Structure formats: structure tokens, C-alpha cells
UniProtKB/TrEMBL annotation:
Source organism phylogeny: Bacteria, Bacillati, Bacillota, Bacilli, Lactobacillales
Annotated residues for binding of Zn(2+): E185, H247, H263
Domain called 3-dehydroquinate synthase C-terminal: residue spans: 182-322
Function in brief: Catalyzes the conversion of 3-deoxy-D-arabino-heptulosonate 7-phosphate (DAHP) to dehydroquinate (DHQ).
Keywords per UniProt: Amino-acid biosynthesis, Aromatic amino acid biosynthesis, Cobalt, Cytoplasm, Lyase, Metal-binding, NAD, Nucleotide-binding, Zinc
Residue ranges occupied by any 3-dehydroquinate synthase N-terminal domain in the UniProt entry: 69-179
Pathway assignment: Metabolic intermediate biosynthesis; chorismate biosynthesis; chorismate from D-erythrose 4-phosphate and phosphoenolpyruvate: step 2/7
Cited InterPro entries: Dehydroquinate_synthase (IPR050071), DHQ_synth_AroB (IPR016037), DHQ_synth_fam (IPR030963), DHQS/DOIS_N (IPR030960), DHQS_C (IPR056179)
Organism per entry: Ruoffia tabacinasalis
Recorded GO MF terms: 3-dehydroquinate synthase activity
Pfam families tied to this protein: DHQ_synthase, DHQS_C
Binding site for NAD(+): G106, V107, I108, G109, D110, T130, T131, K143, K152
Name recorded for this polypeptide: 3-dehydroquinate synthase
Cofactor binding remark: Binds 1 divalent metal cation per subunit. Can use either Co(2+) or Zn(2+).
Enzymatic reactions: 7-phospho-2-dehydro-3-deoxy-D-arabino-heptonate = 3-dehydroquinate + phosphate
Amino acid sequence: MERITVQVNKPYDIVIGKNLIDNAVKYLSQFIQKRKVLIITEDNVNKHGYLDKLKYSLENHCENIEFLSLPPGEAQKNLKNVELIIRYLADAHFTRDDVLIALGGGVIGDLVGFTASIYLRGIAYIQVPTTFLAAIDSSVGGKTAVDITQGKNLVGAFHHPVCVLCDTSTFQSLPTDIFEDGCSELIKYAMIMNPKLLKELIEREQPLNKESSDLPEIIYECVKMKRDIVLKDEFDQGLRQLLNFGHTLGHALEQRSQYRISHGRGVAMGMAVFTKMAVTQQLIHKDIYTSLIQLLSEYHLLSEKPSYTSDQLINIMLNDKKRRTHQMTTVLPNEFGQCRLHVIDLNTFQQNFEKEWEQYEVHQRY
Ligand SMILES: NC(=O)c1ccc[n+]([C@@H]2O[C@H](COP(=O)([O-])OP(=O)(O)OC[C@H]3O[C@@H](n4cnc5c(N)ncnc54)[C@H](O)[C@@H]3O)[C@@H](O)[C@H]2O)c1
Ligand SMILES: [Zn+2]
């Protein structure tokens, strides 16, 4: 079991280990004692029994425990569900002393976090991530959001959880492609700020998988990286934007495909296109691009290039949060295992992207 503290205004711990849900009360009792608890989860998670285990562990240690299970999928990260949860809380007389638990992947985490940020101007919530992606990225850092038809994550707030309980045993039930989606964020961390991790990933004999013995260490390493970035730039004014490497295009692909392209696959194509852009601009040697493509292929993250035109994608990207009135922040690699932010005017962004998207071809498909 590992514990990492995030020293923000109200510091919180991230606990990482096996079978933590079975002993959840050991880690969460201080947050639930004499309080009402609402666990929000989704059907795919529920069917593997994690909700029952969590309830069983906590039920005699809080005032009252209830749960809501939503259908799975990105489409659930919407304002309707925010309202549904809020009405549920109000009907059940939840007060500011009570607590929500998000049991699921990034979708449940983002939805519950955002709802917790606005109900009674903010109540406590606990993250219990059940996907690799949520464990290494979305459950840490306090960014919460839901999607609207105009764009992904356009309605959100900064609201840190009071605790993150990361039970690595829950990954056993993850389908391979969902585990691989998380690997896209892992490769992102390595590309933006960790040459050692990037080298290790490239040189691994076996690609990382949910059975890998070093999985907990890798989670620990990623969570520490995210924690350090968040501490330096809690409100996403600068450094934290590095975490958006591949995401501006990734989000546009997700949205344009009506979420048929997953977050991890969208981000993977985003990283590939923007790394190629860095080669075109002579910021990096072509070998870095080749290594990235090889790595993404090993994790089956490079899907076929969709037939969307650059104009269609640019239109969506210009709605992105990284856009300012006349400028756009892009994240480009500038060394092996290092990226930098580039603030460029919108016309230049448009021209650069158009050229890269037209020339982009998928090197290896799965
Ligand atoms: N807030 C942030 O900082 C941040 C960072 C990165 C990503 N995100 C968001 O996270 C979301 C993507 O997260 P995700 O990939 O976890 O998506 P997800 O929550 O949709 O989970 C992916 C799939 O795995 C299933 N699943 C979840 N846990 C399972 C388990 N233990 N066993 C079997 N199946 C399981 C889900 O039902 C779903 O089908 C996106 O909405 C993205 O915008 C947020
Ligand atoms: Zn992401």
C-alpha cells in the first residue's frame, strides 16, 4: 500500500493498493462517520461487485448509505445527470457535512466531482477510480466537468476530493481496450516530462498490462507526476496545460465521432499529429516521432485516420478551453521526454494543423 499526499488548501491523500475496497472503512472512516453517504457508480462497475463490497465495508460506520447506478459511457457526463443527482441529494436532505463517493472511471469521477462542487456551493466527495486512466489521471487534481453538445468538458469547476482510494484489484475486470486507453495517458506523462519512463516504456520486453507486476509502481510514479504539476499550477494557468498534450485534437475527435473514438485513442492520435508537427517545425529529431508511433502501436492505440476534414476538426478545436480570444496554446515535444507550451495566433494554428492533418497517415494499424 502506498500513500501520496496532495498539499493543496485542504490536503488529501491518494491511497494505492490491492483489495482496498474490501477494507474501505479503514481508509475512509474519518470522512463518513455520522454522515450520510451517496455512492454514485455505473452498471459496468456495479456488475463486478465493487459497489456491494464498498457498501458492506462502510455501512455500519456512517449515518446512512445510499447508491445510484447510472448507465455507462461518456454520454452520461451531462447536465441532466447533474440535476438528477442534485435532486436526489436534496430529496434525501443531504447537508454540507455529508459526502458523495464516485465509484467508477473518469466519467463517473468527473460527473460526481462537478456535482459535488455545486451542490450547496460544494460538498465533500471521495474518488474510488476503477479504470487505469482514472487512477493515473482523472481522479487526481480536482478538475471536474461535464460535456454539452457544443463541446467536451465545457462546464466544470476545480474541486478536489477529500480522498482518493485507488484499488488496483478493480483493474482485473477491465477489458483490454479500456486498459490500453489508460496507457495513452501513461505515454503522455512520459512524453511531456519523464525521459526515464519513456525509455523504459520503449525498452520493455512485454507491453504493460493489467497483470504486470510493476503496475502499482507505475501508478505511483504517474500520480506523483500529476500531483507535482497540480501543486505548481493548481488552476491551469501554465504548467498544468502540459497535461493537455494530444488533448485538443483528441477531444475534437471524440466529439466529432460522437464518442465512438475513446478518450485514450483520441489523445493518442492527437499526440501523434502534434509530435509530427514538432518534426516539421524542426523542434525534434524524427526518431522521437518514430519511437512514439511504435509505442502507440504496441498498445493498439492508433486507429485508422478518420475521414474528417481539417476544417471540421479546427471548428471544434477553436471551442477548446485552451483557446484565448486570439491565441491558442499548443503542447509540442521539444526533446525526448519533454514538451513545451507554445502560444500561437489562431491563423498560424489553423495553417499548421491543416498541413499536418492532410499529410498524416497511420503508420501501423491494429
Ligand atoms: N478530470 C480530469 O482531470 C480528467 C483527466 C483525464 C480524463 N478525464 C475524463 O475521463 C473520462 C475517461 O475516463 P475512462 O477512460 O475511465 O472512462 P469511463 O469512465 O467511461 O470508463 C471506461 C469504460 O470502462 C468501464 N469500466 C470502468 N471501470 C471498470 C472496471 N473496473 N471493470 C470493467 N469495466 C469498467 C466503463 O463502464 C466504461 O465502459 C473522459 O470523460 C475524460 O474527459 C478527466
Ligand atoms: Zn486525458
